[in-house]
């Protein structure tokens, strides 16, 4: 059995529930994004990113990759990497929460944002939860019976692929913070987490590359007769889990660095404004305002004081 996907396979496509869901999601997203106006209007680049994520999801589910994932380890590794990293990154770049908010009335939008700040969303988007899930999932999937069970049971495979997309989406949504999130964390923390995650991808790739044969009995049952071919497929798959994951992570790293610069600029602007106010009050001989005077920050919602969302969700 060859470890290459034959060219003829690229003309063969199948119907897959996840691919159909991706098409429906793209159409609904474009319809909803087209209805948003004013400050909630989604830029064309973000719309394109979401659509690209849906297209990739269709290709990875309905094309030859979906057909050959249960037969070749490197194709399965490619599928896992794309579903866990590339598709969620593109989907979150489209700011779907903002698009949904644009369909709501100001009152419903405010209620939704209150619900978003609830204890369960806060727990699910906590850095240790989202990052831990992203780091642990590939290890558990590859080194337990989960992966073989998924490759031999279509219903479980569908649930597994949905879980991979959801785990990646939760990670990128909480880390990029392009949409309203339950709790905001410094972008420097997101940058450190991303670097640690890249190192973890490398460790996983090395373990798969240098470790013993994975699923040798299973791959013999699907047609592999030569050990060297199984080994080559596993080594290519290790590269997918390591190098491809890091390549996908580069755009996200640049996004975080840009967000970090903007965060520092906003912080410096606030410091400069406070110093200017203090100097003005000193020159006029007036006392500085007492904490809590003026705008009631203590009663304000977090997005009302956030420079990125104060205008976007003004009502």
Overview of the structural elements:
- The chain is mostly helical.
- The chain is built from 14 helices and no strands.
- It is 72% helix and 0% strand.
- It starts with 16 loop residues before the first helix and ends in a 10-residue tail after the last helix.
- The chain has one domain.
- The chain has helices spanning 17-35, 44-62, 64-68, 73-93, 96-102, 106-116, 119-124, 127-142, 146-152, 154-176, 187-210, 216-221, 227-284, 302-305.
How do the helices and strands line up, and which of them pair or pack?
Layout: H1 17-35, H2 44-62, H3 64-68, H4 73-93, H5 96-102, H6 106-116, H7 119-124, H8 127-142, H9 146-152, H10 154-176, H11 187-210, H12 216-221, H13 227-284, H14 302-305
Main location: membrane
Keywords: Cell membrane, Membrane, Transmembrane, Transmembrane helix
Region (Disordered): 271-297
